Amino acid sequence: MKKRYYLLFVILITLSTRTLAQGIRTFEIEAKIDSLIPSRVKDSTPGLVVGIVKDGKLIFNKGYGLGNMAYKIPNDSKMVYNLGSVTKQFLGYAFAMLHSQGKLNLDDSVNMYLDDWPTFDHPVTLRHLLTHTSGYREAYTISELVGRAIDVDRLTQDECLQVIRNQPSLEFIPGTRHTYNSTTYVVLSEILKKVTDTPADEWVEKNIFKPLEMNSTQIESYVGELITNASESYSFDREKGYSNEKSNRAIFGAADIYSSVEDLAKWFTIFRSDVLGGNETQNEFLKPFILTDGTNSEYALGIRAEMHNGLKVYHHTGGHENFVSQLRYYPDSDLGIIVLTNFGRNGWLSASRVAELFLEAEMTVAPQKELKVISLKKDKLTQLEGIYVAQTLNGTLNLSVADESLTLNGRNPLVPISENNFGIKGWSGEIEIEHSSQSTFLHLIDGQKETYYKVEKWEDNGEQLKTYEGKYWSDELEIVYNLYIENGELNVKNRWFGIMKLQPISKDFFESNKGYYVKFTRNQQGEISGLNINSERTLNVHFNRIE
User: Fold this and answer.
1) Whole-Å CA distances, 44 to 65, 73, 387
2) What's the pLDDT tens digit per position in 398-451?
3) N or C: less crowded end of the chain, CB within 10 Å?
4) Model-level pTM?
5) Considering only CA atoms, which of 344, 348, 152, 342 is closest in space to residue 246?
């Protein structure tokens, strides 16, 4: 009898050691994850759910906080959550499948598939849509410019398509830039319907979810559709308390898939094998787009393809209502991380930080770039002080001297490595200053190259600001902006979005309190003739001055 117990003991020890050799001991996972849970997440608050997938198996899942506060239902691995933009990879995979089946070609022009579709100076392909390199407008920004509150005012698929039909020209030559754009995925869902003669949501459910047995995953195809076993999302205000966040749009392609940790664990199958659609499908899906200048955009078909501390990772995040989702898969370690929260930023737990708990031994932190520092006189540094405006007119940088050092935006000291080149400790990129007869240029080089030009700071003398007053009309938006001065400030008023304040940066260039940049245009006589609005995702929305 003692020999039997001894043999059993040896077997248990062997199994425990084997688990350790595989890199993750499951009985340690919970304590590690628990230590990272945000302090605002309690048993009585909204929270999150975490899943760890190793070698194709869900080895850990746990919910924290409540999925439904009204009925005190806790978050768990079976409950479904709105994935937001994580949805894009499912449509991306669908297009990779159709491409490998010969039913479409990712490098075909969009105009081959859609009737009554605008033709621009440069062709836009399906691959451009999938990789956010198209130059098309984004409907969310345009909706905000006309005063429609996203998630409050209804936004339909047809309205999203009409935004692109109305744009006068592409924002940039397709393939030259990567600018995140959810509206292109609305276009893709329409194309999929044309190609397959099946609504995109039905096609994805039949050809992706069912084969992978993702039986709990559901697509919200219209506002108010019943989603079974769904979590609710919440925000918190000190005065109002908790609010149940709702959305007034359901536009499949860009978002609106609900899924659970258990189903998403099955989705990782497509990263680790070619079981769904074959090898060509998998390769197309995971291949990042290379921009025309040779730069790797690090974005494939609805999924990011990057490096994390020396390890390849495919990942995406999403946000909708107050859900935030994160999916990460490390192919060399066959490890997947899922984090879904229904508490917005209050429930944020970094999926990359979770991965580091288990992959630290495999990760390599790149050595910091050695900066060969030179000495520059203060008067040389002072000459570089000033405001620099992005060539795309949608951002600014500020250089100033503090404590004998040139600083970026008053926070990051710049280390001179040559007379016109600077680095920042802990950053692999470089800042290059270029002087010409027209201006001084600042090149921000970090993989891609962004160029800014130096401008003279402009201050109103009490009279010049008045020259910007008037009414401005946009043919594209079919809306009037009224610009007027109040308390010494230039304001933009529209009956729908209220008042937007403009702060001067340089002559004819202003920044708004809503994150937009406004550049005024002048005619040959030097009179103000119109304005252009630019933002991170949208460029050159033009208004003509009408009075």
Assistant:
1) 6, 10, 48
2) 999 988 889 999 888 999 988 899 998 888 889 999 998 888 999 999 878 899
3) N
4) 0.90
5) 152
